[in-house]
Amino acid sequence: MQRPRFELPEALVMEILSKLPVKSLTRFNCVCKRYDGKTFHTYFSQLSTEKDQNYIVKQNIHLPLFKNDVPCVYGASHGLLCLHDSSTDKAAIWNPSTREFKILPPSSVQRPSYLPCIKGYRTLNDVSFHHIAFGFDSKTDDYKVIRFVTLTFDISEEGEIYRDFEFPDVLQVELYSLRSDSWKEIPFPNYKPTYIILGNNYIDGISYWQTITGEYDGFREIILSFDLRNEKFSILSIPEFVGYSPKYYISLLVFNGSLSVIFYLSKETYTSLDLWVTNDGVWTKQFSIKSIPPFVHPLGFGENGKLLLISSKKEIFLVDPSTQELKELEIMTYQDHFLLSISLHAYVESLRNI
Fold first, then answer.
1. Most exposed residue of 16, 41, 178, 319, measured as fewest CB within 10 angstroms of its CB?
2. Which domain holds residue 107?
3. Dihedral of the alpha carbons of 313, 315, 321, 324, in degrees to the nearest 10
4. Helix (H) or strand (E) holding 13
5. CATH of the domain at 302
């Protein structure tokens, strides 16, 4: 005898599913597409504080992407990661929880193939992409990717082609909308980001980059920001005493949901760090860390305000500012990877569709 079939209301089904762990739901996903062994790979080390354990590596995710290109992670938002290969225009948004993967379309922004000049004309030699950021626009319920584009030209004169550094590169800014699934060009700001270190300096719909202003001995560090909601650039100053000097290093990080600046001096025997946090443009010194290993770079903050650092040897350290306690983490960073391609992002499991 056939049992009667009961159908639950969709609202009740969604409520039940929402209470299940993502892993329980994704057990029924199957990926059958395979890649050959000649592809480059991106690796992810997942850190966890579950069961009151301190930053345990749960797994290393080995992900072949983009065939012969090498993408890096340029941001995380609501469980989605943005991947991009800076040497090409290839970009993607990926949900590791559901394994859903969306390749972004090529840009439709016009790029001149040549430009006239006094010596003849300049031909387009190279297009590179950098200072990529990814975030969520709550105003339009849309995910957006912003990237800076550099067009490099060569001089073509009497059959010869050569580089003339008197001619500046042509700069563009492109913005991608997931909702429209398209790119558009936006006006280039008066400043351009100056550092290529990866990170996810995105807070509440605003992305941040380091830049400088002034000339010669009047250089000064400032912060360039971009609001994804109104699609406008702005400038923010940093703590007054921090100037521009080759002796010091500055990194932008997110600390407890606020924009922060780490100001550090690295010597052969030790490194000292000072953290400043801004609230409505007012900077307050949060803490100092003394005598940690030399030649380290801040990666970002984990739970409880603990700072993760990476050394020139690609060792990962965790330091507690309140106790000054330093601990090396057992994380494989893959020695063949370029140091600046290693980044830290806050990630949460998500069932969001792309």
1. 16
2. 10-341
3. -80
4. helix 10-18
5. 2.120.10
